Amino acid sequence: MKITKPRLSFWQIWNMNVGFLGIQYSFGLQQTAINPIFLFLGAKEELLPILNIAGPVTGLIVQPLIGAISDKTWSPKWGRRKPFFLIGAIMGSLCLFAFPLSPALWFAVGLLWILDVGNNMAMEPYRAFVGDKLPDSQLSIGYQMQSLFVGAGILLANASIFLFQSWFGGGEETSGSIPTWLYYSFFIGSFLSIATILWSVLKTPEIPPSDEELQEINAHKGLPFIERFKMPFKEISEAVKDMPKFMWKLSAVYLFQWYALFVYWQFITPLFRATMGFDTSEAAAQAAKMSTTYNIVTAVVALILVPLTVKYGGKKIYALSLVGTGLALFAIPNISDPVMVLFPMVLFGIGWAAMMGIPYSMVSKIVPQERRGVYMGILNMMIVIPMGIQTLSFGPIFKNLLGANSVNAMFFAGTCFVIAAILAMRLNVKKD
To answer: What are the residue boundaries of the Major facilitator superfamily (MFS) profile domain, all occurrences included (predicted)?
Structure first.
């Protein structure tokens, strides 16, 4: 029997999503600060893709497994999803504190693996948690509210980077060491990672499972350990086999969208070293200003997209937003002024708001309630597989086909966004 979910107030939906602020602050640091740290510790530019392989590998393994496991979990005291994203937040908090203290490149790369495990353990059950709590009529507002906190978290992370660089930066860069101005952003992230998750955990009760779901969960608990261990893999396999055609179409969009995003995040700092003659600290600060700008736009635009998707349909707004993001990437390498180069990020911010909200609300409407966790995990697989392909393939492409030129890398990413927009026009789902 399907549970009838009560409509939530604006502030209930707000409290439920606050934890995304801390998770996405961490993600913002990964976007903007991790690759400069690798460069500070002596990494070559063509190695940046492969050094980032922790994200796609851990996302591919951890998120769908945790999603499937959380679907079969229930504790009257702790709930279904909360234990997982609380443990993930603690792991992320400890790693963020240690990251700027990395003494060598291998140490920073190892920490990135642990940080990504924690972030992925927190992220997938959290996305399912939002879907668990909301009736279908409030899914759009729920996921766009999530998009708002995604933007706000990344915004704060990037603002902290360029502000601390401005206040405490300067001086000669020392090869093999991380400048102290970067420490403060990571220490703030360590605090936010756990504090915001605790806010949502304490403020938002989970909906108990129905009698049928509880019976299934208890039956699962009674299985031998080896059977319970194999169950998530079996669940993922069956879910992929039964996956709606819509999600296969979305996977084609995600292939080009997320490949392009990873190129942008890895090469925006090297781009500014090439086009503006900045050193690594100055280029990282400029990249942080870019991210801050587009996330301000995301925070403003996220909820405005809700009535637009209702009126015009999700696929049109999504496709148009992807085109705008591609145009932004075509423009950035042609602008050498540090202020003027921020203007294309308005289009990027609109695109990021759409990417972080529209696909999730679409998928939540078409997947069965009892398998929402595993399907959100599979949706994340569609993100990390393109990222994995990028980390393995783009180093040779950058070096051999694009002339080891970060300008060409940005044009390549813009082209991928245009292709993603064309493919997005094939996505059909019922209007709200």
So the answer is: 246-432
- 368 φ, ψ (degrees, to nearest 5): -70, 145
Which H or E run contains 56?
helix 54-71
pLDDT at res. 173: 60
The answer to whether the beta carbons of residues 215 and 80 sit under 8 Å apart is no
- Read out DSSP for 166-219? HHH--SPPPTTS--GGGHHHHHHHHHHHHHHHHHHHHH-PPPPPPHHHHHHHHH
Distinct helix (H) and strand (E) counts, the chain: 18, 0
Whose tokens are 């401005």? That residue is 166
* In contact, 236 and 371? CB cutoff 8 Å: no
Cα–Cα distances (Å) from 415 to 20, 326, 328, 334, in that order, read 30, 6, 11, 15
Q: Which of helix, strand or coil describes residue 146?
A: helix
What does the block give as tokens for 90? 């603690």
The average pLDDT across 17-31 equals 85
Range 100-105, long-range pairs (CB < 8 A, 24+ positions): 100/37, 100/178, 100/182, 100/183, 100/186, 100/187, 101/183, 102/37, 102/41, 102/178, 104/41, 104/176, 105/38, 105/41, 105/42, 105/43
> How many CA atoms within 13 Å lie on the side-chain side of 395?
15
pLDDT at 1: 46
Amino acid 330: pLDDT: 96
Residue with tokens 């203007």: 343
Radius of gyration of the chain from its Cα atoms, rounded to whole angstroms = 21
Which run of H or E residues covers position 398? none
pLDDT value at 431 more than 60: no
What percent of the chain lies above the pLDDT cut of 90? 24
Distances (CA, A) of 43 to 53, 108, 264, 276: 14, 11, 18, 21
pLDDT of 430 reads: 58
Choose among 374, 81, 121: nearest CA to 208.
81
Name the β-bridge partners of 75. 79
Q: From CA 382, how far away is CA 131, in angstroms rounded?
A: 19
Q: Is the dihedral of CA 37, 56, 376, 249 positive or negative?
A: positive
Q: Where are the alpha helices (DSSP H) in 332-371?
A: 345-366
Contact 210, 369 (CB under 8 A): no
Burial of 304 (0-12, 13-18, 19+ CB in 10 A): exposed
pLDDT level of residue 42 (50, 70, 90 thresholds): confident
Distance CA 209, CA 10 (A): 24
